[in-house]
Amino acid sequence: MSDSQIDYDVNQIFSSDELKASAVLIPYINTNLLGRTLKIQPPISINLNDTMIIDATTLRSLEITTSMRDNTKKGSLLHAIRRTKTASGARTLDRWLCFPTTSINIINNRLNLVEYFCKNTHLTSDIRQILENCDDTQRTSQKISFTHYNPDDFLKLNRILESMLIIKNRLQSELYATPNDSMKTLVERIQPQNDLINIISEAIYEDMLNKMKETRQYNSDGSIISSVDTDNKDTDIEDVENIDFDTNLEEKCNDEPVMKRKISKKHKKMEQDSESSIFEEDFASIVKNDNWVIKKDFSPSLLKLHEQLETKYHGSVELRSHPSYGFIVAIKKVRNNKDVERILNATHIHHFKYRKWFIIQKWTHLGGQIENIKTKIREEETKLLQLIQKKIVEEWYLTVQNSRVVDELDIASSFAVLAREQNFMRPILNYSYSHKIVGGRHPVVEAGLHRKDVSLPNMGGKSTYLRQNAIISILAQIGSFVPADYAEIGIVDQILSRIIMDEIGRGTAILDGIAISFATLYQLHYINRCRTLFATHFHVLPNLMVNFENASCYCTDLQENEDGSFYYLHRIKEGVNRNSAQEFRRQCY
């Protein structure tokens, strides 16, 4: 079902193809998620005019999310700038990089958040520390909504919801001292879920869950192992069954050992270990400390069952469940087996150094009653967990909305950390065709690259320069500060890898290369009319472009000394350097 009422005419918002896609999607969900009641968000129409279009080839060429060398995240732009604390924040950052926005309002709001965190370092540190407890909100709530959960997932979600509330309060207190409209708007989107927090806190027995995790009392699928006491702490079952138990009880008396004299040393050691470790707790403590995941006073029916259970034990003897004998009674310091057998109508089956085992029919019946009550408690706990899960599903959409705010805060604070680490600056965005970058750097290869507007000819760096300008535009339009001393950027609506080309015409005859290059420039200038960075060594091209009103030439330069030596200036200047080849050749010879 839809999570909220759709209050608009879908025929006006969505195209016929979009409606057809939705009509196909709903039956698919119902088929693959049988028996589950899902909260589905209303459909959202995404306008491509609000998004920078980057095709798959360009994403690969610019190494936005994966590197070209080994197709892993290491070496990519995402790897270089990611400082997020949560998994959902990292996924959101990945999505932003693939789909940068073209809305200046959205960009400036994000930049305002980054600037706010940059100026308030203590706030940034506090928020990022709290974010560590947020884990993966959306997937945790999704797991619970799909009924693939265990009680620990409820506690995990509860910690996340509590962290969201702490974040909201921390930011509100900071806003009183240093107001910021963008931060205020974002914080107001966090809706506290106090009722859900209280329900989970009052219901789940957190200490017991922690104890169960320490003792690994979870199945491989995350479910709780049944708490019916099968005495697994006993000795190894295989060893117990190999013991030669005495069957002629009438011939034994007092403290004579029940096991035959031929018992092995291994079995003797097993007796000592069992005596010291198996029965350290009496039956009362075993019942009280059973693996209950719901607090016994959470509901009247559950409390009543626990009261019934407590009436079934007494601290003077120990009742245990054994895999071979069922319920047995362990009694300490028995002097005469026959007295016990006669008075209690018991059957002596085995003894250790300080303790003897008996089967007593009444106690066996009592054990069955206890297990029956335990089963009822488990059933009641299951019902209560289902009620809590239903409440979580009811608030799922609100949880997702809050998690999106947390993701934005995670990314904004991570951008602030990145800006301080790498000395990034806030870009200026507008709707012009300007692209003015001063002191730009490539964020991935910055460690091995000088700050530059461009590098020298045939010495590497021009391709990096072309790519870094595209990357700087992407960073600016996801709301990040950029690796430059100054950046004024007109909004880019599309980046194509065919425009990011290096030395068009290379590998052909000179005249053919010039012809291809000029034809490409002509097409870009008069037909496509997109912003272009064009690197070439063909000095004749500027002569052919005299009438290109929107084109200008820039070149590298060098500083020549009095003795004839020279060095390159890692900057560009307006004009054409027609002697670069001669100077470079003179240096080589």
From TrEMBL:
The keyword Manganese does not apply. Residues 72-448 form the DNA mismatch repair protein MutS core domain. GO terms for biological process: mismatch repair; mitochondrial DNA repair. Gene3D superfamilies: 1.10.1420.10, P-loop containing nucleotide triphosphate hydrolases (3.40.50.300). Residues 452-586 form the DNA mismatch repair proteins mutS family domain. GO terms for molecular function: ATP binding; ATP-dependent DNA damage sensor activity; mismatched DNA binding. One of its GO terms (cellular component) is nucleus. Keywords: ATP-binding, DNA damage, DNA repair, DNA-binding, Nucleotide-binding. Pfam families: MutS_III, MutS_V. Belongs to the DNA mismatch repair MutS family. This is DNA mismatch repair protein msh1.
